[in-house]
Amino acid sequence: MFTSLSGKSVLVTGASTGIGLGVARQFALQGARVLITARNAGRIEAVAAGLRAEGLQVQGLASDVADAASVKALIHTVEEIHGGLDVLCCNAGIFPNSPLEDLAEAEWDQVMATNAKGTFLCVQAALPLLRRAEYGRVILTSSITGPVTGSPGWVHYGASKAAQLGFMRTAAIELARDGITVNAVMPGNIVTEGFLDVAADYQAGVAASIPLKRLGTSADVASAVLFFASREAGYITGQSLIIDGGQVLPESLQALV
Questions:
Q1: What pLDDT was estimated at residue 194?
Q2: Which long-range contacts (CB under 8 A, 24 or more apart) does 170-175 make?
Q3: pLDDT, position 196
Q4: pLDDT at residue 119 above 70?
C-alpha cells in the first residue's frame, strides 16, 4: 500500500487537456488539492469547473510557463490558495510540426521556451515552497521523442524533451540535500485530443508497432506520475520512466510478427 496523497498540494502545468488533465484528475481522485494551469484563461477555468463538478478539489489559473513574471505570480497564488506546495508536475509543452529545412528560428525559440525554459522557471520559482514541504516532489513530462527516438518535423520538440532530462539529472543532485526528488515520465503515443485528429489508419499503424497492441492513455501516464509523487518513491531521483507499451523495444516490425 502506498501512503495516501490526500491533502497534498499539487500543481500541474499544461493541464487544460491531454496528459496534464489526466494527471490532474488522478491526483484529485486521490484526495489531493490540485491547481491546474495553462495559457488560455477561459479553457483552464472551464476545465477546473468541470472537475469540481465531479466533486474534486481543483482550482484553475491562467499562466505562461515561458514567462518568469507569470510563473512567479503562479507560485505565489499556489501559496495563497494551498498554503504550500508538495508536488510540482511540469507538463506544459507545445509540439508544432515543422521540417528542419523549413523550421523558423522563432518557432524553435517558442518550443524551447515553453518546453525547456518553462521547466526551469517553474522548478526554480517553486523551490521555497517545495523546501517547506514534508517531502518535495518534481515530476517532468518528457517524451520518448528526442531522448530515445526521432520523428520527422519535431527536431525542436525532440531537442526540448532531451533538454528536460539533462536539467533533471543535475537538478536532482542539487535538490537532494533538501529532500526534493526530481524525476521524469517519458510517454510514447498517448491518446489525446491532438492524436485523435490524425487519420484512423495512422492510429492503427502506430498501435500495430507497439508490442502491447494499443495506444496509451493519460491514465497510464498519471499512474507513473503518482508513483513518483509518493512517499514510497523517496529514494528515487534523477530517473526517467518510459511509458510506451514497449514501443521502443523492437528492432524492426519483424520482431512483432
A1: 65
A2: 171/123, 171/138, 172/237, 172/238, 173/238, 175/127, 175/130, 175/136, 175/138
A3: 61
A4: yes
